[in-house]
Design brief:
Blueprint (H helix, E strand, L loop, with lengths): L9 H5 L17 H5 L27 H19 L9 E5 L2 E5 L15 E5 L2 E3 L4 E3 L1 E5 L2 E6 L9 E4 L4 E4 L1 E6 L4 E2 L2 E2 L4 H11 L1 E8 L7 H12 L6 E7 L5 H13 L4 E5 L10 H14 L2 E5 L3 H13 L5 H6 L3 H17 L4 E3 L5 H12 L4 E3 L3 H5 L10 H6 L12 H10 L15 H4 L19 H10 L6 H15 L17 E11 L18 E11 L2 E5 L2 E2 L16 H13 L21 H8 L65
Parallel strand pairs: 3-8, 4-9, 10-13, 13-14, 14-15, 15-16, 16-17, 17-18
Antiparallel strand pairs: 1-2, 3-6, 4-5, 6-7, 9-19, 11-12, 19-20, 20-21, 21-22
């Protein structure tokens, strides 16, 4: 063969894939590794310990046709040369993660059964995962990441995307959406088509929506309803949480079916929305106990529904009917109290807890403190709480204020977004969602005379990634690896779909974003892709913009051009018993079981109780009183009278009822003295 095909000694310094070859004179072409390893396209993780961009001098580029012909020619020549000595040659060892893998001959690339549209080559970018980042290329075929590395050998006809100067990150996972939710007399305006289309435009390639129906509706029927709405519309992959709005034995059985047959591993309870979604504490406890049994994650909307109902009426009585009343009847402590109560109930049930939409400093502090005590609890701030604040409720424009109404409300303290971002950056809070539930101006106007009737919900599914990059990475509070963790990887781990989602690795789904950290965009309702006519981030300029968005191997955002297909997304089952949530829970079940004390039985005397039980309880409730005390409502003294019949001076004369010791004695009629002792004084004079 030609000299240009001889092995470059520098290759061994940079990529120690091969053991010494048994035939030093034999020429090994660049792609022989993939010809000889049968599982070259299966899942592997390569640890790039050195700079993988140090590569030998590249050959001049050739056209696709010429390159393919050259590869075929070299392959034929190599096969002829190898054929006589095929049985004598020992196997080649591939060194992956310090383990020797015996490699055998494999067939070359066969591109006859896949179209060029399903093959993508991302070249020259920097891959960012939650734990590290490195320079490498990515090859995608049939919706799966097939290769990650440098000097990759790819089939002809693949589309190459130039990612130089860009970041290659896992697609975002929005853990909290409400698409076309029926709520407060209307439906959310963003359905599963417009909502997922907007998600893709912003770099989110998967959403987890909530099945949330009214009380006494079967959970299985509600699940089927949401699937029928979503399957034909979604543009990206999705999963489902299920809301538990009532409790019974039927609900417990349906939870089991959802976990074992429908791919659901999370159930949400409400401590707010009295008489609509809210459960009592004992029902919440039963729900969390069932979650623990099934290996599912308990979720909570944490606000005190009873207090909100009372405070809301007070606001109306005081003439406060505008959006500001929405925040004033839901102060921070109402959210913090319910958060602590939910954490306490979950801890007693030994169930992992996921607190949705952490909106205030107070609630965030409760979550942080619980985690440091060892509770298995996860906190989810949302794009709204990280990107804006509640001062908008006092805006003179009613529409502007109403556009920000959501529950729990945004907090008027302007330092809240920065505080929550600090906690998110340092793992005191773990994931980010949006609570995307959008309503147009005419829908919000249902509450023009009563803030209690304003449909709760804001946007965020399209802007979440850019908001977090701007407020987190661009401000120096978190690095790109942490950005990937809070927007994608942690969600995938908590809901047990990692590493299928949330990672750039061989074998993972090809949900990828080519992210430009230097580009900027200005958020506006006029340019966003959502169906809603208002944007709570209006006018905000963000650094960090997706250049390309790939979902299931399809390029849907191509240099700013959004091309989606309705119904292209898949339903992704979320298996139970996620390791990050249940590894500690299962150990605690095993080691922290309550144990009784073994002791000899009591064989002493037992007092007999006679008479009315209420009287017995009244008499025995105060150990200071004598046996006869309490039999007379006037007898509030425990010590008997002296031998002469007088009051015992050691006995207190105080009584809460105001009774006195001698109240029962007959009082003599008073005698008016006409002349005091000694006679009248005036008589002397």
């Amino acid at each position: 063969m030609a000299d240009k095909d001889k092995k470059n000694p520098k290759d061994d310094d940079d990529f120690d894939f091969f053991a010494p070859h048994p035939h030093p004179t034999k020429v090994r072409v660049k792609h022989s590794f993939f010809n000889m390893v049968p599982d070259a396209y299966s899942g592997k993780s390569i640890d790039f310990k050195e700079d993988p961009r140090r590569t030998p001098t590249k050959k001049p580029n050739k056209s696709t046709g010429e390159e393919k012909k050259e590869e075929n020619k070299e392959q034929i020549e190599e096969n002829k040369e190898e054929e006589p000595k095929k049985e004598e040659a020992p196997p080649v060892e591939e060194k992956l993660e310090a383990k020797a893998v015996v490699a055998q001959e494999a067939n070359p690339w066969d591109s006859s059964d896949s179209s060029a549209q399903s093959r993508l080559f991302l070249k020259g970018g920097r891959i960012v995962n939650d734990d590290h980042s490195f320079d490498a290329d990515v090859y995608i075929e049939d919706g799966i990441i097939k290769q990650v590395g440098n000097n990759l050998v790819i089939p002809g006809g693949s589309r190459t995307i130039d990612a130089r100067g860009k970041l290659i990150i896992p697609g975002g996972i929005d853990t909290h959406t409400h698409m076309q939710l029926p709520f407060m007399g209307t439906f959310a305006v963003d359905d599963f088509y417009s909502g997922t289309k907007a998600a893709l435009a912003g770099g989110t390639t998967m959403i987890i929506d909530f099945v949330l129906d009214q009380k006494n509706v079967s959970l299985l029927e509600a699940y089927d309803k949401w699937r029928s709405w979503a399957d034909g519309k979604v543009c990206c992959d999705y999963a489902l949480h299920v809301g538990v709005t009532w409790w019974s034995d039927q609900v417990a059985k349906e939870m089991e079916v959802l976990c074992k047959e429908k791919g659901v591993n999370s159930f949400k309870v409400f401590l707010a929305y009295k008489d609509v979604f809210m459960l009592d504490d004992h029902e919440v406890y039963q729900t969390f106990m069932k979650c623990r049994e099934l290996g599912a994650i308990g979720m909570v909307h944490a606000e005190n529904g009873h207090l909100i109902a009372e405070k809301s009426q007070e606001m109306i009585d005081n003439g406060i009917t505008g959006p500001e009343g929405h925040e004033m009847c839901r102060p921070e402590e109402v959210e913090a109290e319910a958060t602590l109560r939910a954490i306490t109930i979950a801890h007693q049930a030994n169930c992992p807890l996921y607190v949705v939409h952490v909106m205030s400093k107070s609630a965030a502090k409760v979550v942080t403190a619980a985690r440091r005590r060892g509770n298995v609890v996860f906190g989810e701030p949302i794009a709204a709480s990280l990107g804006t604040d509640g001062t908008h409720y006092w805006n003179k424009c009613w529409r502007h204020g109403a556009g920000h109404v959501m529950g729990p409300p945004l907090r008027p303290d302007p330092s809240t977004p920065g505080y929550l971002m600090d906690l998110l950056a340092n793992n005191d809070l773990q994931v980010t969602g949006t609570d995307n539930c959008t309503f147009n101006a005419d829908q919000k106007a249902l509450g023009k005379d009563d803030f209690r009737k304003i449909p709760n919900g804001v946007n965020g599914v399209e802007d979440r990634m850019s908001i977090i990059w701007e407020k987190g990475v661009a401000c120096g509070k978190m690095d790109p690896c942490r950005f990937v963790a809070v927007t994608s990887t942690n969600a995938a781990k908590i809901f047990n779909i990692y590493p299928q989602k949330g990672r750039i690795a061989v074998g993972s789904d090809a949900d990828i974003v080519v992210w430009d950290p230097k580009a900027t965009r200005t958020i506006s309702a006029k340019t966003h892709h959502q169906a809603v006519d208002f944007n709570i981030f209006e006018g905000m300029t963000c650094h960090g913009v997706p250049d390309y968005v790939i979902t299931n191997g399809h390029v849907v955002l191509d240099e700013g051009q959004l091309r989606v297909t309705q119904g292209m997304g898949r339903y992704i089952p979320t298996p139970c018993n996620s390791e990050i949530a249940f590894s500690r829970i299962r150990e605690r079940e095993r080691t922290c079981q309550p144990c009784k004390v073994e002791r000899d039985p009591y064989d002493g005397p037992v007092a007999k109780i006679d008479g009315n039980m209420l009287d017995v309880i009244t008499k025995s409730s105060n150990p200071i009183l004598s046996a006869d005390a309490g039999s007379d409502k006037f007898n509030s003294h425990s010590r008997p009278a002296t031998s002469s019949g007088g009051r015992n001076l050691h006995d207190s004369s105080f009584s809460l009822s105001g009774a006195q010791y001698d109240d029962r004695q007959v009082r003599k009629a008073s005698t008016r003295s006409l002349n005091p002792p000694g006679g009248k004084s005036e008589g002397i004079w």
